[in-house]
Amino acid sequence: MLKNILIIDDEEKLRGLLARIVKSEGFEVLEASDLKSGFKKLEHNDIDVVLCDVKLPDGNGVDFVQKIKTAFPLTEVILLTAFGKISDGVQAMKNGAFDYIVKGDDNDKIIPLLYKALEKVQLLKKVKQLEKRISDKYSFDTIIGKSKGLEQVIDLAKKVSKTDSTVLLTGETGTGKEVFAQAIHENSNRVGKSFVALNCSTFSKEILESELFGHKQGAFTGALKDRKGFIEEASGGTLFLDEIGEMPIELQAKLLRVLETNEYIPVGDSTPKKSNFRLIAATNRNLKTESEEHRFRSDLYFRLNIFEITIPPLRERIKDITPLAHYFVAQFSAKTNKQTLTIDPDFLHKLETYHWPGNIRELKNIIERSVILVNGEILTAAILPYEMQHPIEKSTKIISAFSMQSIEKLHIQKVLNYTKGNKAETARLLEIGVATLYRKLDEYNIQ
């Protein structure tokens, strides 16, 4: 790709000579005789590096650097001066200049310096592209689905993302809690800073403590050197603690202290450290019930529950199943180098009538399996797992009006009506798990 260099100098002969030297290196060169015309060329062309004189008819190049870097942060500026002044050089670098050199004395430095500046420009552009890809991947716009329940959750997440409030994401396993956590981070004021994720159910108490708070050399067997914890890594950014309901109760007290004071002490150390991070936590447990039954600290629960967002299970988002299926089919077709596959309507019907205990994660796995198994160009219901092709019929047994089951069914129906169909709230009021509620809804054929 051709590199564009802009030369700004009011001395026409010197500018022409410099242009010929730069062109001989294979670069595209644009010229300007003053700052005003130079800035216009910057506005209408993709300029990589500016070679700019310090003394110009309409201003000073040292001050002009700041204007360029504000409007075009990926453009590098090399200042050229007939009379080198240390104070000008220092100010030029403070304003963002790549370098400051003296005409005549440093002519042999111009081309090597130009290549170094271009290397920096290329690196900055690559970083920018990477940041954009990450941002695009985790933006709210890329969350697939148009169901009312999902749109309400996205609206809540968008509102809280602009704050620094702690967020508690609740919902069944596989509903996409980490995707929402990433989107909240990318839409927050901390975008561009670290997003650090830690699954609390993966480690033992001792290892989780070390991963979270870090440790000093010699703190325990195998601690051969100091190590930063996730809390330190997340400073300035976001710490996402997945499955926080699995965190040992002893560590919960330490985490609470960090949230209240922004201070923590690495394992084996005695000196407190500070970390300014935003916490997003996620769980598939009912932390209110867990805290009432003393399996989770109530003070930590109240600190986490500043802003709770419950992500609905896939079975409550039937409208989203088809667009998700199409997305995963396209993804796995490309991954397995298969031509674009079409989806048979019966295949989609089976997906929409399945109860999805594993939610979006299970759907993704089912689609990947189907894409691997398909022989032709059409995904048919015949390649779906047996339990999806032959769902277990709901019980048709008549329940006696005097039985406990009848009373339980009636009570569940009354609470469900009270919450206007909100399954998570119904389960909370009944003081049972959401999974238990769905099992009973199936058992009693409650719609």
Structural description of this entry:
- With 447 residues, the protein is α/β, with parallel strands linked by helices.
- The protein is built from 19 helices and 16 strands.
- The protein has helices spanning 12-23, 35-44, 61-71, 86-94, 110-137, 148-161, 177-186, 205-213, 230-233, 249-261, 287-292, 298-304, 318-335, 345-353, 359-373, 386-389, 404-418, 423-430, 434-443, and strands at residues 4-8, 28-32, 49-53, 55-56, 59-60, 76-81, 99-102, 167-170, 195-199, 238-242, 263-264, 273-274, 278-283, 307-310, 342-343, 378-379.
- Strands 2-1-3-6-7 form a 5-stranded parallel β-sheet, sandwiched between helices. It has a 5-stranded parallel β-sheet with strand order 9-10-13-8-14.
- A hairpin with an 8-residue loop joins strand 11 (263-264) and strand 12.
- Helix 3 (61-71) runs parallel beside helix 4, helix 13 (318-335) packs across helix 14 (345-353) and helix 13 packs across helix 15 (359-373).
- The chain is elongated.
- The mean pLDDT is 88.
